[in-house]
Structure formats: structure tokens, C-alpha cells
Amino acid sequence: MKLRETLHLPLPARAAAVMYADAQYTAIRRDTLGATDASSHVDGDPSGAFTVTSELSLPTDRVPDIVRPFVGSSVTVREVQTWSAPGEDGSRTGTMRLDVVGTPAGLTATLRLRTADQERSEVEIDGDLVAKVPLLGPRIEKAAVPYVSTVLRAEERSAATYRDRQGA
Fold first, then answer.
1. How many domains does the chain have?
2. Domain of 71?
3. From the first residue on, what is the mean pLDDT of each consecutive set of 10 residues in the chain (168 residues)?
4. How many CB atoms within 10 Å of residue 121?
5. Tens-digit pLDDT profile for residues 13-40
6. Adjacent-strand bridge partners of 57
7. Residue 9: CATH number of its domain
């Protein structure tokens, strides 16, 4: 099922890239999402092309009812974001792979990070949410889209907290 979101970040594109590569941001996301655990690893440097792999252990108390039989009281979400080197204006393109570990569900997406103005940027997410469950897959995908959108949009709050803690 198609999923499209535009996230509005309170940081210019160059600062947003640094944020994504910062372990402090992973801790902020953990707190924002109510995760019990979070970790991240960066390959490369945000001044050029880089990849961030994050894992978050999330409670499942807010997942759609149709999804509950496939998950326990928590799930581990593994997210891999791969970003290109920046353009002159700090814009980047990238990809995201989000897997719910131990389930047949995941999201693949293309990303576009661009500066909105001197203090803000936007991330356009254009993806496909897939639940490979015979007969129920399309129903699970449809039920999961609002939940996944909510998780993605939490990034806006996390970015604001990050900015405030950086004193930007």
C-alpha cells in the first residue's frame, strides 16, 4: 500500500542531516515514541553520503487490532536510512527501509530532504508498506498506514526537541 508523507523539520537541511547521524537524536526518538530501547549506528559522515541504522523497541498497545495477533507486547523496528551527499543547498536524496523484526511487514521508501527556508526543511517520504500475510495482507496494510504515519510524524516532535537541546 502506498504511503506518502511530508515531514516539516525545524532545522535547515544541513543541520537535519547532522541530526539524523547523531546518537542523541536516537535517544530523543526513543523518548518521543515511548520506546523501551533504542540504538543507532552510522556508516559515513553527514558532511557526505552516509547511512544510519537504528533499532527501536516499541510497545504495541496502539497498533491496530488486526495486527495484534502477529506481534507481542513490543516489537523491534529496524530502520536503515541511506542518504546521498548534499547538493549545494544542502538537499539530499535517500532511501529508507523499515522492518518490523520477526514479522512479514515492512516499508521501503525514497526520501527527499530539502531546505524550506533558512530555519526549516522538509522530508518527502514516498513509500510502499507491505504485509506479506496470505489473505490478510491488504487489510493489515490498510490498518497499519495510519499507525506508521503517526510514527513517522513523531519525527517532527523529535526534531524540535533536538533543536532545542542543541540551542539552535
1. 1
2. 2-166
3. 92 96 94 90 96 86 60 77 96 92 82 94 92 60 64 89 86
4. 25
5. 999 999 999 999 999 999 998 888 999 9
6. 37, 76
7. 3.30.530.20
